[in-house]
Design brief:
By secondary structure, this protein is of the alpha/beta class. The protein has a four-stranded parallel sheet with strand order 2-1-3-4, sandwiched between helices. It is built from five helices and four strands, in the order βαβαβααβα.
Amino acid sequence: MKMYLISDNRDTYTGMRLTGVEGVIVHERQELKEALEQAFEDREIGIVLLTEKFGREFPDIIDDVRLNRRLPLLIEIPDRHGTGRKENFITAYVSEAIGLKL
C-alpha cells in the first residue's frame, strides 16, 4: 500500500518526496478533481494525503469522496504554515461526536 500527496505548495511536496511519498501540486478545483481521479485509478494507493487548505476551499469534493469511496483513505495534513484548526480540535471533535464534555 502506497501513500500519495496532493499538495497546494512546493515545500510540503518536497518534504514528502524526501520521505519517498510521491505526489502532485495543484491549485485549482479542476486540478484537484483530476489528481484525485488519478489516485483512485492506482490500486496500490491506500492513503491520499491532502493539505488542509483543500478541506477549507473545496469541502464538497472532499466530503463526496469520503462518503462515496471506501478507499483510498483521505487524510488532511497541515502544511508548512501550520494547522488552521483550533488548539484542542481533537477533544472538541470527540466531545461533539459522543455528546460528553471531556
